[in-house]
Structures are given as structure tokens and as C-alpha cells.
């Protein structure tokens, strides 16, 4: 089964501003070059109830999907991903207990449950004690088959940049983009 909007590879680029984090989601061509702009996301800093809306245009006039926390100020809060009409695309949540030594997330889509963990245990530990921008990578593994279904790899750069590969066509692009932005937004706290 293939998701309604499947995109096998894309980039997430963060733009820092005073009051919000802005993200550009850019399609990747097979040769690794930039493709079309797929969405722009904006996250208010220090919001009590996390919500990130993705827009089709720079002026942020056409919302296309979003994710929102189910609860306020909960370290293990779940996030629902919805399309422009409010339809449920999937969800994700941080596994707070498992994340003490190695950040761990649960990702749910139609017919799929996956666990995402930081790939490198040493980098995970160093990140907790040193405030320098280290490249960190996440692998999401199907809990039923053990197969990697999605990866998010942070590149070394002055601002946050990620390469996201979606290996399982059951994962909708909008859910994958929400998870990728969520990783950056939730781990930056």
C-alpha cells in the first residue's frame, strides 16, 4: 500500500528568526540536487501547546498540513499530523523514558508502527553534555519487520539541515516532513 503523497527523499532546512523557527521542505532529485519547494513550516518558540503549520507558499496563505500536540507541557506528548482538511495522516511521540540516554520516537501511520532512535550512542551521550551542533542521525525501524523505513540525517552546517529518506511507501510525505521538523524542534529544547 502506498501513501497518498509519497516522496522518497527530501531536505529540511531551518531558517532562524527572532520569534519563530522557519523550515523549508525541499524535494530532492535523484542526483541529490534541489527540486521544488514542497512546504514552508513555522514554529513559534516557547509555545505552551506545540503546533506547526506547513504552507505551500512563502507568504503563508495556503496551509497544506500541520502537526499539533495532544496536550500542553507534556514531555511525552503525542503529536497528530493532519492534512489541510483536518484528516488524520498519522502521529508521533517522544518516548521520554527511552530518550534519557538516546533520543527515541514512536511513529504511527496507517498499517505501520515504527521506532526511531539516534543512530550513534556516543553522539547521543555527548549531545547531552556539550552544547555544540553535532551531526546526529535517526533511523526509524518498522516494529513488525525490523526494516528501516525512514532516516533523518543532520548535516554539518551553520544552520540545521537534514536529509530525509523515506524507504517505505506507506509513510506519507506530510507525516515524514512533520516528524523531521519535530525532531529538530523537540530536540532543540
Automatic annotation (TrEMBL):
The protein's name = Scramblase
Amino acid at each position: 500500500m502506498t501513501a497518498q503523497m509519497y516522496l522518497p527523499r527530501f531536505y529540511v532546512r531551518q531558517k532562524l528568526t527572532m520569534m519563530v523557527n522557519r523550515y523549508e521542505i525541499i524535494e530532492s532529485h535523484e542526483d541529490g540536487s534541489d527540486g521544488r519547494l514542497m512546504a514552508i513550516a513555522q514554529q513559534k518558540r516557547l509555545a505552551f501547546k506545540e503546533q506547526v503549520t506547513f504552507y505551500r507558499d512563502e507568504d503563508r496563505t495556503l496551509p497544506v498540513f500541520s502537526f499539533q500536540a495532544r496536550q500542553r507541557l507534556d514531555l511525552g506528548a503525542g503529536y497528530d499530523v493532519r492534512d489541510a482538511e483536518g484528516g488524520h495522516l498519522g502521529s508521533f511521540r517522544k518516548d521520554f523514558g527511552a530518550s534519557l540516554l538516546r533520543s527515541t520516537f514512536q511513529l504511527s501511520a496507517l498499517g505501520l508502527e515504527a521506532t526511531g532512535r539516534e543512530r550513534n550512542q556516543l553522539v547521543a551521550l555527548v549531545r547531552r553534555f556539550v552544547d555544540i551542533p553535532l551531526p546526529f542521525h535517526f533511523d526509524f525501524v518498522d516494529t513488525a519487520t525490523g526494516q528501516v523505513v525512514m532516516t533523518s540525517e543532520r548535516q554539518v552546517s551553520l544552520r540545521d539541515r537534514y536529509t530525509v529518506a523515506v524507504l517505505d511507501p506507506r509513510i506519507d510525505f506530510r507525516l515524514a516532513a512533520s516528524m523531521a521538523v519535530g525532531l529538530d524542534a523537540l530536540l532543540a529544547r
